Every structure is written in C-alpha cells, then in structure tokens.
Amino acid sequence: MIIRTWTALVVFIYVCLPCIVCKKNYTIKPRAVVPENYVKEIRPPSPKGQPVTVDVSIYVVDINSINVEDMDFRIDMFVRQRWAEPRLRMPNDIFEEGDDSVTLPSEFVDNLWQPDPYILNAKVSEIAKLQHKFLSVTLFKNKTVRYAARMHAIIACQMEFQLYPMDIQVCPMYIESFSFNNQKLRLRWGEDAVTVNPELKLLQYNVGQPLQMEETTGYMLEREANFSRLVLYFRFERQIGHHLIQTFAPSALVVMLSWFSFWIGLDAIPGRVTLLVTSMLTLVTMFTGLKSDIPPVAYVKQRIQAMDKTHCVAAWDVESAGVRCRKSSLTNLRNRRLIQVSWIDRRTGQEKVLWKEIDHQSRIIFPVFFLLFVVFYWPILLLKKSQLLGH
Q1: Model-level pTM?
Q2: Where are the transmembrane segments (predicted)?
C-alpha cells in the first residue's frame, strides 16, 4: 500500500506538475498588465474637458446580397479600434525580443475598458466565428490598445430608382458610440480609414471609388445627448450592359417588328392581329420580369396620368361608322356619320380609303416618333446620371 502511494506521488511530481507549471508560465495573467485598482467601467484618463479618442479603421472584405426589395445590403469587414490606456502596466517579459506589441486572446479584452461603437442603421450585426470568434486584442509598449474583429452586418439603405436601370445608390453606414456622448468619447477615422478588397466584384454593380468618409455629431433624442459619429458612404453604380442585352435591345426589336403590320393588307386581318398581339404579349412579359427586380415605388406610379373620368366609350359602329356614347345627351349621334371613311382626291381624282391612308402615314409617323424618343431619352438619362455622379 505504501509503495503504491509513493509511486503515485512520484508520477504526479514528474508528469502532472510540470504540465501545470508550463500552463502557468505560458499564460499572461490579467494582473500582470492590469493594476489592482483598475476599474474597467471608468474610461481612460484624458486632459480635463477632453474626450477619449478612438481611432477606427475598416477593411471591406466583401459586399453582397444588395437587396432592392428590402433596401439593404450585406457587408463583411474587419473593424479595428485603437485607443490609449495609460493605466496599464507593460512589463518587458510579456514581449518577445524585438517586438513592441503582444497579441492576447479575445477573453483578455473583458478585463479592460473598451468603447462601445455600433452601426446605427444596421439591421443585423454580429462578430464572425467558426470554432471561435474572430477577434483579438493587441497591447503596445506605448500603452495603446488595438481591438480587431471580423464582422457581418446587414445595412439598411434608402434607395432611389428614378434613373433605373442606370441608377446610382449612395448608401451610408453610420458608426456611433452607444453609451458615451461626444464629451466623453470621440470616434475618429484612423490612418488607413477604409480599405476595399481590390478583388471585390459585384454582379450588377460597380463599387464607386474613392469612398466618402465623414466625422459628424448626431443628436439622439432617446438619450438626450450628442454622440460622435463616423459616416462611410458606399456608392453602387448599376451596370447597364445586362439591361442593354436583356431589355433595351429586345424591346426595340419587338417594337420595330410591330411596324410590319402596316404593310400587311387590310384583308389579312388574322395576320395583323396575330402580329400585334404577339408583340404586345412579348413586351408585357418583358416588363413584368423587369418590374420584379425593383420594389413597387410610389413615385413611378405618379408619372401615370388618370384616365378620363367620363363614361363616354368610343366604339366602332358597323352601320354608321360613328361613335357610341353612354351619355344620354349624345345618343342622337348614333346614326350620324362622324368619320368620312372614303373620299375623292381632287388632285388625282382617285378614291382614297381612310384605313389605307392611316397605314401609309403610320409607316412614317411611328418610326419617326420612336426615333425621337430614343434621341431624347438617352441624352437626358445620361445627363442626369452625370449630375448625380458630380454630387
């Protein structure tokens, strides 16, 4: 019995005890850096009346899921915050030889005071994680703390579609402190304020460069104070190539195809009707699919004028070739001939039929109006787009 006890003691001393000692030797205790009288709820000391300055920098890894229906987009980014903490102790034994900083596990940040910025217009915001959260804290010899984390966020954006499909969406992202007003904490863009992944590519948009950044102060009514705020503007310019191939070119071809009905004889009624109905259904199908790409905004509908509120309905009368109207005051016009369907040309002496003349004139009028529409549409659209880019 005594021999077994001594054997177990020897095993514990030579096997288990060194592991425990190694674990202690390779773990930085918070008290080695944080003084005993350190209170993490109190912000770092600063000159009287001056706020603590926190430098913020962002590296944009990816932007995806630009949702025009919900008016938001998803962004993956690295966020770095840097501030001075003169209350810390920085013993030389925690730094490797030749280094002026040491990176500690994420749990260490719970022992320090830390700012509390949040994205004001974010619907969802979270720290990325796989087996653990992607965040770290780095201490420098000059008593500066750098906190870094990889984040996912869904940012709300108020989009405008007046120039669709050549629209440019300017989407701001507001970063603001939640608890400390601007007299206690100031957010400031760091040296490398915002960097975008050079390999970032979007399917339907181009990310405008450079991104506009601002430092402002916003008043929060629910907290009755002004808070330091950083603003980052993303500019998404829609690529027109897809719509040129899928929308503009096919619709123009269908419109031109409908003009062939003016060359089809009046006696070929089935052919004319089939051609026009096919063209109409094709355009309706195309624009129905186009509408599904954007939300039903109100300002597009306000461009459509209201129909005539009168109850007079035009209809062709086979016997009188007139216009029938539901108004009682016009019922006496039913038997009158309002449209002259044929006449004799005084210059040539030939009989002219109204329907044939309409076809002859339409062969010229319709292409000319379509050409005028194209000539005015594109310059006006490009001018408005250039003005928006200028702003």
Answers
A1: 0.69
A2: 248-266, 273-290, 364-383
